[in-house]
Amino acid sequence: MRIATYNINGINSRLHVLLRWLEEFRPDVVGLQELKCTDEAFPAKDLEALGYSSIWHGQKSWNGVALLSRVGEPVETGRGLPGDPDDAQSRYIEAAVCGVLIGNLYLPNGNPWPGPKFDYKLTWMDRLHAHGRHLLDSGLPALLMGDFNVIPTDQDVYKPERWAKDALFSPEAKAKFAELVAQGWTDALRKLHPDERIYTFWHYWRNSFQRDAGIRIDHFLLSPPLTKSLKAAGVDRTPRGWEKTSDHAPVWIEVDV
């Protein structure tokens, strides 16, 4: 099964990009982030025309996450990250597909740092830690995927010094990401490509993509049962070079299920 995560950066304004990529790449399951649309405006029928069933958690103008599947309807198991019932931001959706429990997330950016948005980021990560532990304790094949808005190490950024004051590269965020992985998760890209410089995001300005001046902030974390079946992982850079595209590229894994 091929599973992908893609921060689409506005699903309706970039629907032509998404549909073209789905037709060409044909992933079995996709997690989308930054829908930037209400639940009513989600283009479910366009996705159905390509054979994808969808569940989504939208929000006007901001955030928003969705899961698509062409290998059976996603069976929703969670909407919104547990731990704060008053959190109104649409950043997490979870479903079972083909026996795999999939958590799709859009972690807060946290800028400007320091400040209230950064505090929210760290609190959200604490909640993710608690839920991640719950998923691992279940013993099920599970994964957390999406835009984590964290650059884990110097290896994951083109020029570390240029990100030194950014919340994505803050010591606190990196430490919390490392603590999450240390629960027992496997960073799929690093598992199979330990020494490569791999990026998943490039700014629109200064020809960042053409210069490959990127960062790695989109991740797959796999539970131990799923790690055993990991066959391949990579970044599909192709759609990042298309017209009016997202500033992220899709990340994908292949697992036996």
Automatic annotation (TrEMBL):
A Pfam family hit: Exo_endo_phos
E.C. designation(s): 3.1.11.2
UniProt cofactor(s): Mg(2+)
Stored CDD domains: ExoIII-like_AP-endo
GO molecular function, one term: double-stranded DNA 3'-5' DNA exonuclease activity
Endonuclease/exonuclease/phosphatase domain span: 4-248
Protein keywords: Hydrolase, Magnesium, Metal-binding
Family: Belongs to the DNA repair enzymes AP/ExoA family.
UniProt protein name: Exodeoxyribonuclease III
Lineage: Bacteria, Pseudomonadati, Pseudomonadota, Alphaproteobacteria, Sphingomonadales
